[in-house]
Amino acid sequence: MDTTYYDHGTAAERWERGRMFFEAKDYAAAARVLGGLVEEVPEQTGPRLLLARSYYHSAQLSRAEAELRTLVEIDPVEHYARLMLGRTLQRLGRPEEAASHLRIASALGGEFEGARPAPPR
Q1: DSSP string across the chain
Q2: What is the C-alpha to C-alpha distance for residues 121 and 113, in angstroms, rounded to an integer?
Q3: Which of 10, 41, 65, 73 is 20 to 30 A from 101 via CA?
Q4: Is the pTM of this model over 0.70?
Q5: pLDDT tens, 35-67?
Q6: How many C-beta atoms surround the C-beta of residue 3 within 10 A?
């Protein structure tokens, strides 16, 4: 497969192209663009999180899990990565493993078991 279109341009241009594909719901194309970008700038969490989300939405769940685990290693308190990892593990049929990540995400997001939102005024 020719990946010239997906790989050309600066990192900033590829980030914008990846976001454009994601927003257009072309998750597989977004993943193709973002995969190379993540290899180039592995320390940046934004492209890696969008890559994981692209994998998730295009049902590439094992790839999503791998990216999300890397994100959680880099930043253990990254709320959305924890949430996405939990949801990915649920979709992979691993609910027990998912539960701990979902609990952590809930706590990081300020949602605690048994807590009720304040009533509307």
Answers
A1: ---HHHH-S-HHHHHHHHHHHHHTT-HHHHHHHHHHHHHH-TT-HHHHHHHHHHHHHTT-HHHHHHHHHHHHHH-TT-HHHHHHHHHHHHHTT-HHHHHHHHHHHHHHTT--TT--PPPP-
A2: 23
A3: 41
A4: yes
A5: 999 999 998 999 999 999 999 999 999 999 999
A6: 11
